Amino acid sequence: MNNFEWGPTLRVGPAKAHKTLTEETLARLRRDIVSGAFEAGQKVKSEDLKKRYQVGTSPIREALFQLVSEGLVRSDGQRGFRVAELRQEELLDITDWRARLECEALRRAIATGDMEWEARAVAAFHRLKRVEGQSGLDPTEAADLWEDHHRAFHFALYSACGSPWLLRFCELLIQHGERYRRAYITYPRISSSIAAEHQAIMDAAMARDAEKAADLLETHIRHAADLALAHATGRPGPGASPAKARRASGPKSEREPTQEAARKPRTRQRNA
Amino acid sequence: MNNFEWGPTLRVGPAKAHKTLTEETLARLRRDIVSGAFEAGQKVKSEDLKKRYQVGTSPIREALFQLVSEGLVRSDGQRGFRVAELRQEELLDITDWRARLECEALRRAIATGDMEWEARAVAAFHRLKRVEGQSGLDPTEAADLWEDHHRAFHFALYSACGSPWLLRFCELLIQHGERYRRAYITYPRISSSIAAEHQAIMDAAMARDAEKAADLLETHIRHAADLALAHATGRPGPGASPAKARRASGPKSEREPTQEAARKPRTRQRNA
DNA sequence: TTCCGACGGAATTTCGAAAATTTGACACTC
DNA sequence: GAGTGTCAAATTTTCGAAATTCCGTCGGAA
């Protein structure tokens, strides 16, 4: 039950062969949303995305719909799509569930994980450390790289939990947690204390001390959220332009419709 | 935080206006998969679906991708889609998490729910009872109707839990749980004991007895799963044609490729 | 002025056909 | 007979354009 696959979200390695354009676009779009390349609440026009990713209408829409289901994008009737908003309230919700579910996953993995699991964890941890030591990279690239391996490390720890659904929930929550973090905290900011936390979790896990590992993990998760929250409150506020919106597409006219345009019902032909 | 929306999955009422064809197709396809109109593991050809739902390529694919994310459909590289398999192992997993998460949701709702929540629950329960009393319907239709209202009743109970993510998780799990149930148990089988369980849960919830309600709910969930499991083990086994596969499309040739056809890598142009 | 409906540009949704890929079959060699 | 390469049909993926819908604006009536 280990080779559980849902999306290719958390795979760092060689990845599935026979990728379709849709899958590729999905991965890129998801990464761009999580990394903050698009602003929260921003309208995403398929025309822009087509230019940005150099693909046709179908892959774009197919990817968008999958992201809707993941909660990163919202679909507005026949009014297109927009990036999900960021609300502090939701960050609290996500953090609570991350603490509950990821700790549970870790406990189970420690209880039942075999040598292969240990090997995966050790390998992922090693990669993370190496990436942290790396210097001289473009900040954006460095952030992306670190986040990828950070995610992979956490996921490797849970990978032996034995419950596909738990793993899936963790996957979703981690993704969203990362988005909040990256929206509020500017890089580079891989503080050594975070690295130390990882080390401690890793040690406890390998020593098969489930309770200690879970405690450390919970602290780690809440710590990250607190940090984000602290930064958030000292800022314009959620939804109001966190991070820079890098790699944004050209200076298009954008025409954001008036925020809450009067929504009077009209006559309609179809779908009567 | 109550008006949380993800998919239109669990809405019974008036539903969002301005439906697009994709949304409609998504709802229909989801319902058909959950209800067992498609067999588990079956390949779904877009050509068939186009004929079945009378729409073009795009709505079909867009709906399919959303269902992939929900776990009801799996996407096979460039080899199309197939309905997710049913494995007893997974039913156990789903049941465990349903018990944990739905009970938690119910507890929270009881703790913080207001009058409006009570009203929603009472209304949903009333509808469920009325539907159960109804007679003289086509069995298929009756099953669909009952399931819709059963789902809505459970969801109404949780709707005041205050956590969007918890609600979303419950939504997904309920959906999958229903699929297993309907795959293994043939209708009509709305035993009076189930109705009694609902009544008891409802009473405890309205009396704000969180612990009792949660206990009853857990029993209810496990009871349903046990029933399904009992039927499953006395059958060909999961994945091997449970339920009837009603409303199946025309007697097409179906051409199921040999289960594990030798998968030798070929030369490829794109995505090199 | 304010409300209402129609008009037209912009964006989204949907379709159908072209391009690419998979799959099974057939012939050929070893 | 087993293994291998080629070919054509079936299927999926992708594109681009047509159809539909939305949204702001303008003009006219109360």
Q: Tags for this entry?
A:
three-stranded antiparallel sheet, Arc Repressor Mutant, subunit A, mainly alpha, 2 domains, homodimer, disordered C terminus, DNA-binding, 9 helices, 272 residues, Four Helix Bundle (Hemerythrin (Met), subunit A)
Tell me what the structure shows.
Two copies of one chain form a homodimer. Chain A is mainly alpha-helical. Chain A has two domains: 21-83, Winged helix-like DNA-binding domain superfamily/Winged helix DNA-binding domain (Arc Repressor Mutant, subunit A); 88-233, GntR ligand-binding domain-like (Four Helix Bundle (Hemerythrin (Met), subunit A), Up-down Bundle). Chain A is built from nine helices and three strands; from the N terminus they run αβααββαααααα. A three-stranded antiparallel β-sheet of chain A has the order 1-3-2. Chain A is globular and about 55 Å long. The N and C termini of chain A lie far apart (47 Å). In chain A, 39% of the residues are buried. The structure holds a DNA duplex (30 and 30 nucleotides).
Count the domains of chain A: 2
Under CATH, the topology of the largest domain in chain A is which? Four Helix Bundle (Hemerythrin (Met), subunit A)
Beta-strand percent range of chain A: under 5%
Oligomer: homodimer
The radius of gyration computed from the alpha-carbon positions of chain A, rounded to a whole number of angstroms, is 20 Å
- Binned, the helix content of chain A reads 55-70%
The tally of strands of chain A reads: 3
Main sheet attributes: strand count, strand direction, barrel closure of chain A: 3 strands, antiparallel
Question: For this structure, what is the CATH homologous superfamily of the largest domain in chain A?
Answer: GntR ligand-binding domain-like
Shape designation of chain A = globular
Number of helical runs of chain A?
9
User: What is the spatial order of strands in the main beta sheet of chain A?
Assistant: 1-3-2
User: What class would the helix/strand composition of chain A place it in?
Assistant: mainly alpha
Q: What is the distance, rounded to the nearest whole angstrom, between the alpha carbons of the first and last residues of chain A?
A: 47 Å
Name the chain pair whose interface involves the most residues. Answer: A-B, 41 and 41 residues
CATH architecture field of the largest domain in chain A:
Up-down Bundle
Instruction: Give unreliable regions of chain A as ranges.
Output: 1-5, 10-15, 236-272
